[in-house]
Design a protein that fits this description.
Chain A: Component of the general transcription and DNA repair factor IIH (TFIIH) core complex which is involved in general and transcription-coupled nucleotide excision repair (NER) of damaged DNA. Chain A has 3 domains: about 90 residues, Arc Repressor Mutant, subunit A, CATH 1.10.10; about 100 residues, no CATH class; about 30 residues. Helices cover about 50% and strands about 15% of the residues of chain A. Chain A has a 4-stranded antiparallel sheet, covered by helices on one side. Chain A is flat and about 85 Å long. In chain B, strands 1-3-2 form a 3-stranded antiparallel sheet, with helices on one face. Classes of the chains: A alpha+beta, B alpha+beta. Chains A and B meet through strand 10 of A and strand 1, strand 2 and helix 2 of B.
Chain lengths: ~290, ~70
Amino acid sequence: MVGSPSARAVSQDLAQLLVQAGLMKSEAGEAPYITSAGFQFLLLDTASQLWYFTLQYLKTAQSRGMDLVEILSFLFQLSFSTLGRDYSVEGMSESLLTFLQHLREFGLVFQRKRKSRRYYPTRLAITLAAGVTTSSSSLSSSSSSNLASTPGTGDAGFIVVETNYRIYAYTNSELQTALVALFSEMLYRFPNVVVAQVTRESVQQAIANGITAQQIIHFLRTRAHPVMLKQTPVLPPTITDQIRLWELERDRLQFTEGVLYNQFLSQADFEVLRDRAQVGFCFLTK
Amino acid sequence: MVNVHKGVLVECDAAMKQFLLYLDETMALGKKFILKDLDDTHLFILAEVVQTLQERVGELMDQNSFPITQK
């Protein structure tokens, strides 16, 4: 669904799902626009994105009048099926067939035509089951993560981050380029490389959109080029620290709503009030 | 009688607090907004100036930063 070169309009159901998942918001009468949760979603790795989407879908399935148990069992069946083998739609109920069409739009299942009797699970569906384990292990071990992340996405790590704040993304995909452009300034575009620079303005722009520094760093780490993976730590510490610092710059002040009590007549009153307050507040003994 | 004021408690580091005191003295926001100076890191201010205060702090940070990279 995402990443395909042709821009196909998404179905009504899907658009509604996006709105319900909180990834997009639609004002009355206007086209939907992306929310900060949506930005965060974009920077997750494929397996997390898939699971997030599936969970949202399952939550809304009940309200659609589809049987949750059936759908879940079919989903588990799908993730354990063999890649490349086809399966028949024999004996599938009405709601399961609708579910199958939705899966086709997500890209989890391949069907020649809408009416065809057979379907093939795609690589993406197989990683559904494997997805959870790889995303957690990729943070700990750097060498095996690249192997594990290739099956679903098709591109291995393709981003090189340099200590002069430059990012080189070896990719042709519009989607990946747009994702990098979320938090950096594009400098040059070549047929197979995109050069961008991480600047204070670009990172703070991303933070104003609702992306956290941790997500940017996670995004870069999960898509790090194999050359980068050879060094420890994977990303240069200057860059990660600087991104975090730029985020902290915005947080120099912390506000809490409060009420000020002063000019107590007696010490006893003051002590009673102080003991009753559970939430930390600052008091002055002047 | 005990006085009660509703406002916002601000927690920050000492340097930032001095900046807020400066803004208050010069009436940069149009009025005095500090209700009470609590200690080295806490202030009690009016609730409505919170937004403008964030903007002012942002401007200060922008003034103090310089482009570290060259294109």
